[in-house]
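INTERNAL TRANSFER SHEET
From: sequence group
To: structure group
Subject: Subtilisin-like protease

Please process the attached sequence and return the structure record in the designated field. Keep the field labels unchanged so the import script can parse them.
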Amino acid sequence: MEKNTLHTYKLVLLCACSLVLFLNTELSFLASAKTLDNDSKAFYLGERVHDDPELVTASHHEMLESLLESKEDAHNSMIYSYQHGFSGFAALLTSTQANKISGAKYYVSGLLAEMGGKFNRTIIQDFKSSRDVIGHGTHTATITGGSFVSNASYYGLAQGTVRGGAPKARIAAYKACWNGVEHAGGCTTADMWKAFDDAIHDGVDVLSVSIGGGIPEDSEVDKLDYIAAFHTVTKGIPVVAAAGNEGPAAQTVVNVAPWLLTVAATTLDRSFPTKITLGNNQTFLAESLYTGPEISTGLAFLDSNSDDNVDVKGKTVLVFDSIRTTPIRLKGVAGVIFAQKPDDLLQRCHSFKCIFADYELGTDILQYIRTTRSPTVRINSATTLTGLPATTKVAAFSCRGPNSVSPAILKPDIAAPGVSILAALSPFDSRQHDGFGLDTGTSMSTPVVSGIIALLKSLHPNWSPAAVRSALVTTAWRTSPSGEPIFAEGSNKKLADPFDYGGGLVNPQRASKPGLVYDMGIQDYINYMCSAGYNDSSISGMVGIITKCPNPKPSILDMNLPSITIPNLEKEVTLTRTVTNVGPIKSVYKAVIESPLGITLTVTPNTLVFSSAAKRVLTFKVKAKTSHKVNTGYFFGSLTWTDGVHDVKIPVSVQTKIIIKA
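Return from structure group:
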């Protein structure tokens, strides 16, 4: 950020422990701890979860142990354990340790009530405490608010200084979902709502939700997570949510309610090239997380027709991901080259070396195997390549729009790095090495944005959640750091469009000074629900007040989003947007239009004049007219308001649909 005015802000992280189904959740938020003196800190954890005071104290020791990484240190640092009227403790900690953690709670009563039993460790493979057992909560929390750590790496890869998006943040944990539990996906509405409710009560500033469901999505007035998020937003708290990991197919994006800020995942301009040399001296570059010594072995191919008794011990085997290869068939191998469709997912295998290649490279290696009597391969250790020629692209797994619930609401909103992100992991996570690990998913890109929002809120504490989203969307990058276009991985790599990355790749510096914002409040969300066809009773139940939709109903196209999405343009349509000046008081902005193919966009007025502090809000209209004579897919463009300093750009997506009347 340009100004060194960072204050400590409270932040909530709803962190999932499963990358695909986004289950087993923890909540974390940033809060201030009361200082007793220079070395001792007091931590208030709310109501006691246990009736037994000894169990309350044990939970305090567990929390300290997760911070200090030693039972002995945890016991030695404890000054008091508050165990009767409420839960809390005082401990001797360094200023850094006091790293961050200001409270922790867990919620399991709802789950146990539905399961009809006690906490059974054979079913619930988790600690009955706020402690993170599988690392996902730790990873996402440190992405958002981790301190500066120099010389961090994962087995020597991605080495450098790491920090969270808001490194001065303090973190508490609210654990609402549980590992290993199939029932209700490991979390219940009762537990989740209590976690949301406590977070709101504690005065959090950002809520980051790395969880989600699947398609079909429930309606906004029926999906309980959406209802909780709605009330969070109406309290002025931005809710940041993961787009999901079921891409790259269209209409797979989840967390699509318009009050959510939904985040897609991109790669970094970083790769881990691994040199493969065949026995005929052909050389290829694949990717891996292998960091051991060079290996030189025989080379074999396994497919569904291969003899189960074929001897592969000590060899490197080539496997295509379309072939079902059991671990038994790979027993004793020195390494595996996985030829697979692009998915940007790298992992470190523990019982053998694993290298990842695409189908084209796999086919080249297979051709060598089939034409050579005794094929061999030499594999070098992976290296870290940062910058050119590696470049940013939307990850293949990142879920795509258009929105399957309300196609006129653009989702995702924004994209952020979410592939092979280096951050801290729980000591109980087998993937961690020296406390760090690489993880991938929209679960990782979501806290990147949450940390940025924490910084924005420190600069602009009065901005609404909608203003925050607008600032991020309208200032996002549409090109990679190298200046090249951003591509989207999938069955075929293509140029990214708004359904891949929303407004683009998040740009923290520009977001702090967006110039104009597209703002909204509770009435805008009520108008949306009316325009979407929800009845008065459903809306009233959602917002908590008696609501009657106007007649005629508002147009969904008029929702004041920092985007324009027209899913059913037959001839022409006119829509309205309102912008608020958050830049210099006297400003003049001119419209710059990039019309989608076959669409004519007209903006009225095409100049906005902000002449005084009292005149900060102006409205304009956009007319879209199609020249297409047939039904089309979506074409994309943009509308930019510029004053010569600020370029306030929103994506425009239009699909022509001609209705045939009987």
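Handover comment: The first helix runs from residue 53 to 68. Confidence is low (pLDDT under 50) at residues 1-38.
Transfer complete.
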